[in-house]
């Protein structure tokens, strides 16, 4: 029997998949192998480079823990996560767009009353965030739940920073009968994705900037509606067009308004100065999803 050559190895490997019972798994593996082999051929990968790649992926796995998912981070910074998001969540016109969940979501944040603050640490410029949750016809959705999280004033999430109390900068808020919500936080700041692992080495080797534009994360849910995983970006942030994980979408911005006097300020009793911002979320019913 003749030995395999660089020309017929791909066909041979694919033949080994012929008995795969699941058609979808077969489709995915077939395409993956074709593209991997095409990549090796295109760049004429050397054995040393192949081994460096194996070492990189091994370190990526070693970096993963209950609070750190370096593989998701790698997928994020290579643009794979947002590509999957764009395929998965095609929304009808007028519906709020999704974006990445990110690696720092924690279940079990406390439900807080309207107007409460999610801030349990010092620093940052106060921000009053309010808005409405509606359906595609503009009808307010009462009782929708907003699960909110963001970094503290030092640019770190509570799970990254032993100095912060658990659930700092996290909270759940329920909309009132008119679909309205209001909570207090601090104006978010840009922050770098974690660069102390293999993804950080990738950034250094490619001279990429690791910052994400300032944002607040939201998961908005309501019975009968498709859950919305998204974040809202500060419209004045300099990194909007350079997001290290490509998650920015122009429709997902809020514009902070600075209040130096109580006149026109949404909460007249709050110490000045502070910012306010509004955003209205539009949810789709499960059957309206694209
Ligand atoms: C974040 O928004 O928290 C995030 C998203 C993707 C990668 C790293 C951080
Ligand atoms: Fe984030």
Sequence-ordered SSE layout with sheet pairings:
Elements: H1 9-15, H2 23-43, H3 47-62, H4 70-77, H5 80-88, E1 126-134, E2 145-149, E3 170-174, E4 180-186, E5 191-192, H6 198-206, E6 211-212, E7 215-221, E8 228-234, E9 253-254, E10 257-259, E11 274-278, E12 281-282
Parallel strand pairs: 1-11, 1-12, 8-9
Antiparallel strand pairs: 1-4, 2-3, 2-7, 5-6, 7-8, 10-11
Bound molecules: benzoic acid and fe (iii) ion.
The site of benzoic acid has 9 residues, from helix 4.
Short description:
This protein is an alpha/beta fold.
Q: Given the C-alpha coordinates, what overall shape results? A: elongated
> Please, what is the CATH homologous superfamily of the largest domain?
Aromatic compound dioxygenase
The Cα radius of gyration reads 23 Å
Residue stretches low in confidence (pLDDT < 50, at least 5 long) are none
Can you count the beta strands? 12
Largest sheet, strands/sense/barrel? 5 strands, mixed
| Percent in helix | 10-25%
Question: Secondary-structure element sequence?
Answer: HHHHHEEEEEHEEEEEEE
In this entry the ligands are: benzoic acid, fe (iii) ion
What is the mean predicted local confidence, pLDDT?
95
Fraction in beta strands: 15-25%
Characterize the structure shown.
This protein folds into 2 domains: 9-45; 75-288, Sandwich (Protocatechuate 3,4-Dioxygenase, subunit A), CATH 2.60.130.10. The chain starts with 8 loop residues before the first helix and ends in an 8-residue tail after the last strand. The protein contains 6 helices and 12 strands. A hairpin with a 6-residue loop joins strand 7 and strand 8. The radius of gyration is 23 Å and the shape is elongated. The mean pLDDT is 95. With 290 residues, the protein is an alpha/beta fold.
């Amino acid at each position: 029997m003749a030995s395999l050559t660089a020309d017929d190895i791909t066909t041979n490997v694919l033949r080994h998949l012929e008995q795969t019972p699941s058609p979808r798994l077969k489709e995915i593996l077939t395409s993956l192998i074709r593209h991997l082999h095409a990549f090796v051929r295109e760049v004429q990968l050397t054995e040393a480079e192949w081994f460096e790649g194996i070492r990189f992926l091994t370190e990526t796995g070693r970096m993963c823990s209950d609070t750190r998912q370096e593989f998701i981070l790698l997928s994020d910074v290579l643009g794979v996560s947002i590509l999957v998001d764009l395929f998965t969540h095609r929304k009808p016109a007028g519906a709020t767009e999704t974006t990445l969940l990110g690696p720092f979501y924690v279940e079990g944040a406390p439900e807080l009353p309207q107007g409460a603050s999610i801030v349990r640490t010092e620093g940052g410029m106060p921000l009053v965030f309010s808005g409405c949750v509606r359906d595609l016809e503009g009808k307010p959705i009462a009782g929708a739940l907003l699960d909110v999280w963001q970094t503290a004033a030092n640019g770190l999430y509570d799970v990254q920073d032993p100095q912060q109390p658990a659930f700092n900068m996290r909270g759940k808020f329920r909309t009132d009968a008119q679909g309205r919500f209001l909570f207090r936080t601090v104006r978010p700041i840009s922050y770098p994705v974690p660069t102390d692992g293999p993804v950080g080495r990738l950034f250094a080797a490619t001279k990429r900037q690791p910052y994400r534009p300032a944002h607040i994360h939201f998961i908005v849910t309501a019975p009968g509606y498709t859950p919305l995983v998204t974040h809202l970006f500060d419209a004045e942030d300099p990194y909007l067009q350079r997001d290290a994980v490509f998650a920015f979408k122009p429709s997902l911005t809020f514009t902070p308004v600075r209040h130096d006097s109580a006149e026109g300020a949404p909460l007249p009793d709050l110490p000045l100065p502070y910012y306010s911002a509004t955003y209205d979320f539009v949810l789709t019913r499960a059957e309206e999803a694209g």
